[in-house]
Amino acid sequence: MSKWTPEQRQAIDSRGQNLLLSAAAGSGKTAVLVQRVIDLIIKDRIDIDRLLIVTFTQAAAAEMRERINKAIFEELQKAPVEIQKDLRRQLTLLSRASISTIHSFCREVLKKYFFLIDIDPNFRVGDESESAIIKMGVMEELIESEYESGQPEFLELVEMFGGNKSDQGLLELIRQAYEFIQSQPDPEAWLKESVSHFKLSPEDFAHSPWLQELGRQSVLQLEAARDMLQKALRISEGPGGPAEYRDTIRDEILQVEQLMEGAAAQGESFYEQLPSLSFKSLKRAGKDTDKYLKEKAQRWRGEGKKLLEKLRNALQDLEQYRQDLEYLYPYMEYLCGLVLKFSASYQQKKKEKNLLDFNDLEHLALRVLKQQEVAGEYRKKYEYIFVDEYQDSNQLQDCILSTICRPNNRFLVGDIKQSIYRFRNADPSLFLDKYTTYSRGEDEAHRRIDLGRNFRSRAHILAGINYLFTYIMSRELGEIDYDHQARLYPGLGKDASEDADIQLILVDKSKEEGADKDDLLEELEELNAIALEARIAASRIRELLGSMIYDARKGEYRQIAYRDIVILMRATRRWASEFMEVFRAQGIQVYTDSSGGYFEAVEVDLILKLLQLIDNRRQDIPLLSVMRSPIGAFDIAELTQIRLSYPQGHYYEAVENYRQNFNDELSHRINLFLEQLESWRERSRLMPIDEFIYKLLMETGYYYYVAAMPGGKQRQANLEVLVNRARQFQDSSIKGLFNFTRFIENIKSSSSDLDLARVLGENDDVVRIMSIHKSKGLEFPVVIVAGLGKGFNRADTRGRVLFHPRLGMGPLLVRSDLRIKRDTIARIAMQYRIQVENLSEEMRILYVAMTRAQSKLILLGSVNNLPGQAEKWCQISNPYELIRAQNYLDWIGPALAHHAGIDTLRKLAGEGSDGMILHEDDSSWQIELLDRYHLQAEEREKSQLKQEFKQRLEEYPGSNELPDLIKRLDWNYPYPGAVKLPSKLSVSQLKQSGLEEREGMQGPISSSAQVGSEQTPDHDSLLTSLEKGTLMHLLMQHLEFKPYQSLEELEQAMEELLHRGILTPSELGFLDKGAVLAFFQSSLGQRAIQASHIYREMAFNRVASAGEIMPQGGELEEELLIQGVIDLYFLEGGEAVLVDYKTDRLQPFNRQERIESYRIQLEQYRKAIEEIKGIKVKEGYLYFFSQGEALRLL
Fold first, then answer.
1. What is the CA 904 to chain-centroid distance, rounded?
2. DSSP classification of residue 1192
3. Which domains does the chain carry?
4. Which tens digit of pLDDT belongs to each residue from 215-241?
5. pTM (2 d.p.)
6. 990-1020 pLDDT, tens per residue?
7. CA-CA to 908 of 20 to 30 Å: which in 710, 922, 927, 1122?
8. Rg of the chain over CA atoms, in angstroms?
């Protein structure tokens, strides 16, 4: 960025104060941060290693380091000579500068001060897999010991929270409580304080955090009820309205306003007044009253009354609520003890393994930094502390940094409107507190600077975003008022393009009832909402592709390509795969960067089932899955035949029964299959789990089988991820196939998943599908936000015990003695607060999605009964009604319904839009209303065009030109055979063509020998056998031929190649030294050593006739160029002995075929030596290193 805005320049230049940089989307916050660092280095002469820069992710830290490095280089090019030396020094210091995540910083603290908290300095940080296994073991031990002790409180907790048929619910509750408290600076203190709130006196209960929260919530509900009553009053006072209702409604409004005053004051008077709230019957309306207006007034008054009665009923018996909490106190106290026991046991297990997890890094670092001497050292070291994405920090992380900061050296960067990681325990209130308390004055000790100018999106997109969020985002919902300070202002130049609209596509997914339907219509009605949106998105992409788009940064128009388009979704599970299927069917290049879905991938699921089966074959689903798969190659008829032979019991028993009692081809195959399983089971006990999985992939050939499936590259990458995941598991302290399968099942049962492997290149021309969370920090020319009608996930408010940082724990009251179950006051308060906070996060997620767009923004969502929805949207006018939203369209719809310049939704709502208050705004929106029958018209139009084109071809008029045209079109090349012949062939290709003629592909892939040896990956980084063979040839080309007596002598010779740079240490590790020694000690090797002349890796070219080389060449006079490299030949008595190295392994079933294919190679080598060198070849050998075998073929 060549020029800085005044606000950016202030952020770069300000010194001697704590700064909060509230940086809106696309405002250049990273560029500002980097420039501030550069200025501190150059102008303030502060070394880079005296700055602490904390980022949210490791990728962000690497990018920050790279950008600073680039900026220093740029300054170095133009700096005076006297400054260049210092800049070069900064480049040297950059490698050890503190630019990292908070966890990396904590790790450095612990490595340095380990002795202060009694930990081993050689600790390692365990990954999630190892931690999960340890937690499972600790939990089982804890629960088992509790059952043995039989404490009444524990048994009652099992009844309360265990679930209907097991104690799994209680185990999950303990785990959830433990995970939740880890974001607190003092987890144990927080937990004990939360429990203490369950035993309050009536006086203390009146001032409890729950009643204070309910008071704040009640104000919103009362405001909403008053708005409804006022709407009813306005209708009653208007022409034709039910005037007789006015007095009653006015009295009710007065009661509500009095309650609002009490609720706002958060005093006891509110709860005392609430039970006295009363409603009188409405008087009979006059005969002249408009019936529609009367019903409308009654409806609004009824809605308000219903809301007030709900509030009154919920809060009318506070003493009973207090007694419920008092009853729960001993059980919550015991639950607290269980969590602390679990924590202590888990810590002990980790200590035994010298293991820390990420939570330990933070908590232990805080313990170290609370010691003033240590904190003082860091305060002295770091002149400035930078925190990027501060809105996503939590209390613990903020506390860590607070211990080492000075009164005036913090630079906090973030945007509360982009805080979308509360599910990871991020606490946006940290940013909000500073946002509201930091002053905007230049000389303040705590200063806030707002960056509101957006350098990413075109002006019309910003205008639409500003209008929408001004309407829906507030302190009550969104946690910040979207005022002039929060708005986005254009930073790019304006353009005069005609497509300056945000598009909203609303799809009515309702089905038509009763009408006669043709096949096409019935097919469209079968589409679910996801497929329906996918088809519409695909149609829009086809329209966009190749059209012109304005590139505001370049100030020019260009064509839209696939890579310019992204589909953003709140969650990609199920949606991404459906979109991909539709897009691919319509020829759209697409890639999904979806979260999860890994275990659902067919290839991963099958290998995991195979591992389960090897571990325990008495599992019907894995057994049937593997037998039916390409690995087992049994068909449905055979599986049915097995079951019919033994209908009762497990399927494995039927398989064993068939093997023992039948003697046919099927029983023989079953026997081979079970023997293979037994062989794998034995090997699984001896091999590391990652090597074992790798061997399975190779021996079954499944790694190559999936390569031939659609998306083969992705599928192979998924299997490689499984091997790497197993390697991580193997590196932990827990081993074995059983533990690995158990670990995977634990991940799946906890509704967790892994991401699919990434195989996308940066410049691949594809439409990307990704979650909104993954799009954060990215930008795209065209953004389609899909799934806006999908319901919000409210699972966080449904747990039997809720957790909240400020409100503590909110359990459900379950009394098995009275057989009752009801909400406690804590849970009621927490449910609403968590709901509001989650919806606030959803609103920010929508903001993030919309601010990714550079030039074109399309919003897409589907609903049932679109006219009814439009009428509902026209009636939403206050924050409480927005809080009741079910999906994103329940926010977008009301905002656009109240937009004075857009009447689409008001027209759709009809009379339901009467009396609306409209808002004038300059933003431009295009609303398109579609249904599934719109697609019917599209499909019919395509079909009709095809038919018309076909008819035109069939009705082409005859003329004198027709014979000549037919002659031209029917012309054939007179030498068709030559077309099929290549002009150049390698000897390896000749060998392969011969092999294909003899072999063909047949039979199940479960035979390991059918895997193509040339492409078999080695276990280490899936190094292929082709690469391994290349290494062996390289070694034999340069290694001295002499009689090696021992492996040590050979290794010394190989070390020399390492010093000469011919081989690298890792390559040396891949080579089988024993096999090389065996060659030199063999009779063939000894002959080569004693030969008068040795020739290695001799390249040649020779010309041969097509008929000689290829049977299909026939009698053609075409000539081919044959290229090859002869591994080794040596001279004995003036004649040549030819040797060709092989690193693959011959298998019994294909031994002869492979030997014959290799004979073709040797024959070409013989002809090359005899024709080019004029030396007769007397013998020709294949030498197989893997078997130490020399085969004479010539």
1. 37
2. E
3. 6-123+358-451 (3.40.50.300), 128-183+329-353 (1.10.274.50), 204-316 (1.20.120), 502-510+523-593+766-798+831-930 (3.40.50.300), 598-750 (1.10.486.10), 984-994+1024-1192 (3.90.320.10)
4. 888 888 899 999 999 989 999 998 999
5. 0.74
6. 665 543 433 333 334 443 333 333 444 444 4
7. 922
8. 37
